[in-house]
Amino acid sequence: MDRVEIALGPLTYNWTAARRASFYEGIAADPTFDMVYMGETICAKRQAINGAVMAEAITALEAAGRKVVHSTLSLATTDPERRAIADLVEDPSLTIEANDAGALRGVVGRPHHVGPHINVYNPGTLEVLAERGAVAMCLPWEIDRKSLDVLIRRGRDLGMVMEVEVFGKAPLAISARCHHARAYGMTKDGCQYVCDRDAEGMAVDTVDGQPFLTLNGLQTQAHAVTVLIAEIAELVNMGVGRLRLSPLDLDMSAVAAVYRKLLDGALEAPAAEEALLALLGERDPANGFYYGVEGSTWAA
């Protein structure tokens, strides 16, 4: 069987320029990551203030031999945002991950990736995407194991590299409005980039004080961190070609090392799970989507 790669997904949080530079410096130095997805997928306003440091990070990653894929916004609501996506996808030198229908339209006929924000739930959709030039597909977070099996096998038959998110906070929704800014008493237009106060988004509790969701700018994420580790052997048997890790404010190189050792047979699943849970600290783990139950469930 082909070697399963490890990819780092795009940074979904609004970290400062200094924090981003330090983070990607470490990623560039870590050969565990075969591929790194770069680009602002949540809020175009963040791109305006972080564009320079992200461009420098891309240069460093490529110089270190990492494959870089440029991810697009997952929701474009204004003409400038649509033009920015168009400018990105029209550059033939870039490998693009399309995260909305407009980006898909711009890359038709050339090799490209399809991101997890595109709703792909059946083999017919995969076939259409492959015909239009998709060479890789990261499936949506909420798909259960039976559907993953069908889609991964069909994608492989079509010559696509099938990718699954195995670590990170699952995206649940995205809006044109910024509830994160509203929570701080601000508007979207006058937000003062307040989302940079929360390194992993703002926790939202229920009325009785139970952890519930995470606000991340325009995006709503799960509270718990998706952790698929005991499930990796099954995913490999299905034919998954790449595992994606979504950045959190912890040692992502250590996280990647656990997955690499597990894939290479240097670590057994129980020990790998124990190591990952230790890295999570007080964060709650979840794997419910995989088993077709509530996504916040942890089936140990």
Automatic annotation (TrEMBL):
Recorded superkingdom: Bacteria
Classification via InterPro entries: Peptidase_U32 (IPR001539), RNA/ubiquinone_mod_enzymes (IPR051454)
Record PANTHER family: PEPTIDASE U32 FAMILY, UBIQUINONE BIOSYNTHESIS PROTEIN UBIV
Protein name: U32 family peptidase
Organism of derivation: Pararhodospirillum oryzae
